[in-house]
Amino acid sequence: MKIIVAGAGLVGSNIARYLASTGNDVTVIDQRPELVRMLEDHLDIQGMIGHAAHPDSLEKAAAGDADMLIAVTQVDEVNMMACQVAHSIFNVPTKIARVRQQAYLDSRWQTLFDRDHLPIDHIISPEVEVAHAIARRLEIPGALTVVPFLGDRLRMIGFRCTADTPVVKTPLRQLSYLFPDLHLVCVGIVRGGSFFVPGGDDQMLVDDEVHVVVETAHIERALSAFAHEDRMSERVIIVGGGNVGLFLARELEERHPGMSIKLIEADRNRAEAAADRLGHTTVLCGDARNQQLLEEADVRNSHAIVTVTNDDEVNIMSGLIGRRMGCGRSLALVNNSTYDILMDTIGIDVAINPRETTVSSVLRHVKRGRLGSVHSLRDGEAEIFEAEALETAQIVDKPLRSLRMGGVIIGAIIRDDKVIAPRGDTVIQVHDRLVILARSSMSRKVEQLLAVRPDYF
């Protein structure tokens, strides 16, 4: 596909990097020459200096031949106008815009983005998606990652194995015998910094980060299998009153009215604005690296401290200090991938990767075929997605072992409203709904297996 990405900031650069790595023809437009040059030096993309909403810039980017425009500059109005120009002048088939201001997304103005008004096909809001992802982690003790699929009927959950994990050193094929009624499949393991799709003879070892697909109704039993039986976080401290922190606090207030929530924001004006917009959340103004302020927030009796400022160092340091002072769990938003290798060793329990969330929010619109929710893992190293098996698709009516898909694993099947844990002799039937994990290098092969003949429709 030929895709134009408007905006070379953190969001745009990560989207461009992923799209280029999967074989798409990508052009990035930005007014900042240094960012454009940096992307051209490090990625297989074409960079162009210009204003993303100006017709001449889009013309130079060959918008007339583009399949998609993804407008993710820092200004909502520029993103909206870029989509309008791409539609009205260049007839770009698919337009995606990043919209941060929730005032635009109020249900009262739901017709704003209709084709006759502002022709935007899909709205993405990475800050809201990151807040949702954090909230899901807070609800499941010990979870490193939580991704819902098929209307939340299934979830992929990431755990870290410890010496107390009962299933350590157990061949994965034996899990179905140990837990016959537990619909749980291990779909990925990170060991020593390397990710692999496991086979039936592989084992989970201490310090492995494992990803399992489990029926949502069986999560409590899955937690027991991984020795995570603590309570959901009920006393939470949020550091950072920007979009992510504010969205997170509001979501926790709505979903868990009895939860004790404190929000720390260094900027007084922003702290006052947050206090006005939140309900029962207590807002404190100050530097979250100050131990006295953390004492005032009662960090030692809190279940979790979530650090989501726009400064990685502040997030890491305040999370570490809070953890050292007695907080049960630390979750830190980390934009700089250089820090990823440090998180496990310095004491941050969960490093929140906004890059994965951002890429995931656009993947479903880039993918072809009958694919539903798509989530990127390990900075694009793998993808996990939901799909429907249709008539004439190659994957139908064959035992799974005959497909020989190295680097691909089916985590669950829903058939006639029942969840099936797949085995080698399982045969995919028409209209089965699947959760599939694939290394990114295999994603096109999976799409081919799911594709139907042109005469199907």
CATH superfamily of the largest domain: NAD(P)-binding Rossmann-like Domain
Tell me the CATH topology of the largest domain: Rossmann fold
Please identify, by name, the CATH architecture of the largest domain.
3-Layer(aba) Sandwich
Largest sheet: 6 strands, parallel
Averaged pLDDT, please? 88
CATH level 1 name of the largest domain: Alpha Beta
- List segments where confidence is low: pLDDT < 50 over at least 5 consecutive residues: none
Strand content: 25-35%
Strands ordered across the widest β-sheet: 3-2-1-4-5-6
- Secondary structure: helix percent: 25-40%
The helix/strand class is alpha/beta
Would you summarize the structure shown here?
The protein has 457 residues and is of the alpha/beta class. The chain has 14 helices and 22 strands.
Task: Give an account of the 3D structure.
The chain has 457 residues and is of the alpha/beta class. The chain has four domains: 2-124, Rossmann fold, CATH 3.40.50.720; 129-225, Regulator of K+ conductance, C-terminal domain (Alpha-Beta Plaits, 2-Layer Sandwich), CATH 3.30.70.1450; 236-352, NAD(P)-binding Rossmann-like Domain (Rossmann fold, 3-Layer(aba) Sandwich), CATH 3.40.50.720; 366-456, 2-Layer Sandwich (Alpha-Beta Plaits), CATH 3.30.70. It has helices spanning 10-21, 33-42, 55-60, 76-88, 126-139, 175-178, 219-225, 243-255, 268-277, 291-296, 312-324, 343-346, 354-366, 443-450, and strands spanning 2-6, 25-30, 46-49, 68-71, 94-98, 122-124, 145-149, 154-160, 184-191, 194-196, 209-215, 235-239, 260-265, 282-285, 304-307, 330-333, 350-352, 371-377, 382-388, 408-415, 418-420, 433-439. A six-stranded parallel beta sheet has the order 3-2-1-4-5-6, sandwiched between helices. A six-stranded parallel beta sheet has the order 14-13-12-15-16-17, sandwiched between helices. Helix 1 (10-21) packs across helix 13, helix 5 (126-139) packs across helix 8 and helix 5 crosses helix 13. The longest helix has 14 residues, at 126-139. It is globular and about 65 Å long. The mean pLDDT is 88.
